[in-house]
Amino acid sequence: xxxxxxxxxxxxxxxxxxxxxxxxxxxxxxxxxxxxxxxxxxxxxxxxxxxxxxxxxxxxxxxxxxxxxxxxxxxxxxxxxxxxxxxxxxxxxxxxxxxxxxxxxxxxxxxxxxxxxxxxxxxxxxxxxxxxxxxxxxxxxxxxxxxxxxxxxxxxxxxxxxxxxxxxxxxxxxxxxxxxxxxxxxxxxxxxxxxxxxxxxxxxxxxxxxxxxxxxxxxxxxxxxxxxxxxxxxxxxxxxxxxxxxxxxxxxxxxxxxxxxxxxxxxxxxxxxxxxxxxxxxxxxxxxxxxxxxxxxxxxxxxxxxxxxxxxxxxxxxxxxxxxxxxxxxxxxxxxxxxxxxxxxxxxxxxxxxxxxxxxxxxxxxxxxxxxxxxxxxxxxxxx
Length: 384
Known about the structure:
Helix content: 10-25%
CATH topology of the largest domain: Beta-galactosidase, Chain A, domain 5
Radius of gyration: 21 Å
CATH class of the largest domain: Mainly Beta
CATH architecture of the largest domain: Distorted Sandwich
Number of domains: 2
Shape: globular
Distance between the termini: 20 Å
Order of helices and strands: HHHHHEEEEEHEEEEEEEEEEEE
């Protein structure tokens, strides 16, 4: 932004740099990455904390879209002025040209879905921008081998009722690892990086097969997405992440009728038997109510996790304490999930419902196969 401002001032033009494909549209990624809880979708080495983004003031001016500042206004009004005083980038918002329409109250964005392609695609879905109890899900596709990557392909975060129920640890402090000799930046399949607890797939809300790591060279594309009323959704093909263990692995996430979240996996075992573990990483207290039902509690709110299929599973909790002395502590967090044993060549459907307490206990509708989910294809970055 500083370069483009300087070029425009010195030469009266930016030589077409701002018009390069995808550049201005990247502002919508910033916008959609924040959930209703105010926390970001912090996949890989990111942090869930958010701060004002001065760049969006410039983008809002360039695109003539004041809705880009809807979330920024909330961040600027957050009850922590001390944090703003320490933000050395904050004065850059003065270069943005204002909210775009002279209003101090930017309108809410119109789009409830954003998807991006490229080497590290994500899908971001929400039921509302103005309801603090809105549902939000962020789905991570892509590959572990991208810069600062984790084995988090297929993982997701989930917000509802003002609580982040499905979370991501994000990065461990680099110094805490490098000072103990951990070779953090080797990205090979057998690299020590993947032995760090927070970096492996076992610590994420995704699948683990035969207690093994995801394939570091694997890539999961987004295969579809939709903003259909009552069924905001996105799907990805995870097969390459489990090559050799599974013949097929496809995942879909959806927000259904504004009432609950849905995670569906369609799996086919390879030529040998496989054991698949499904997990949700949560900061909530977990009470197992039965073999297929758990109640999560946090901040006085509740969420019901229900396994609709398969029928013959038993939910359990798993420790989030890493096995090494260099692993960071993860207090107040739990992994809840289940395991499924697949004979060679067998198919399995894993369907999990995430039902916020505020939405009542009305029975969900039947779940369609992923191939029948509404979709807009091919996945591509979307505007406002």
